[in-house]
Structures are given as structure tokens and as C-alpha cells.
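User: I'm preparing a small set of examples for a lab meeting where we compare how different chains pack in three dimensions. I only have the primary sequence for this one, and I'd like the structure in C-alpha cell form so I can line it up with the others. Please keep the answer compact; I'll paste it straight into my notes.
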Amino acid sequence: RKVQQLEYRIDELQFKFDSSLSLQGSMCDNLDMPAIYLIGGYNGVTWLSSLDSFSPKKDILVSLTSMGSARSYASVAAMEGCIFVFGGGDGSSWYNTAECYNTRSNEWMICPCLNHEKGSLAGVSLNGKIYAMGGGDGTQTFSEVEMFDPFLGKWICSPSMLQPPIS
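Assistant: Understood. Below is the C-alpha cell output for the 167-residue chain.
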């Protein structure tokens, strides 16, 4: 667990250090910020692990490194140059897994798992933390809130919502 915490902290510090440097020769060179990221999903035949970035300014779509697992109905939140993807499922099971995409290095990193498997949840970043709210598992809808603290390297149960959202 300590190693994961240190790896995340190193990535965070590296991003801050590199934030003013360009990525010459990178697939990301063709993109301007802001970009719209298309992450995973379902195409009617198969569950997707793909990651694409769309630049509205240049009107181009660039394929980036795929996630480690195919998933749909996942949630995402961006924080400090990373896109966190958590929850969701592949049509046969729901996930509690989480992955983090570093927009500077075009690499994915496995993150600590949520406390429960779920999909169709909401996600947001606030004050250096990632929040996973609500969601469901196909039979029940949850009102729970989990907070990912990068410094601690784990998801922490937070006060639940008064009512579960309709998913």
C-alpha cells in the first residue's frame, strides 16, 4: 500500500514539474486543451476499453492508450492532469476497480478499488480528493459516498446522501 501511495505521489509531483514542458513527438501533440475524452463504453456488440481524445479546436479525434479493462457505466473525475475511471461493468459483472490515466505520459495506472462493485455512479474531484456517489448494482440503488484520498491511497466511506439518486 505504501508503494502505491509513493507511486501516486511521484506521478503527481512529476506532473507538476512537467506541466510547462511540451510533449514533442507524443500522440498528444495533435490535441489542444480543452479536450473531450471518450472512455470505454459499449458499441452494441462488445464492451470497450478504448480511450480517445477529441479536440474541438482542431476537429480531430486521437486514439490514446486503452484502459486495462473494458467497462461501461463507469464514472470519471479529473484531478491534476490525471483522469480517474472507477466502477462500471462489462455486461456480466459490476466492478469496484479504479484506473488513472496520466494525460502527460499517455499511461494508465491501477488505483485502489472502491469499497463496493457498482455502476452508473457519479464522480467529481474537489479539494484534492475524488468522490464516488450513488450508483447501483442492477438490483439496488446506493446512496453511499466514497472519497479517494491520494495521500492515504485508499477510498474512505463518507456520509451518505439522504436519498439514493435515480439511475
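A couple of notes for your slides: Residues 16-28 have pLDDT under 50 and may be disordered. Residues 2-18 form the longest helix (17 residues).

User: Perfect, thanks.
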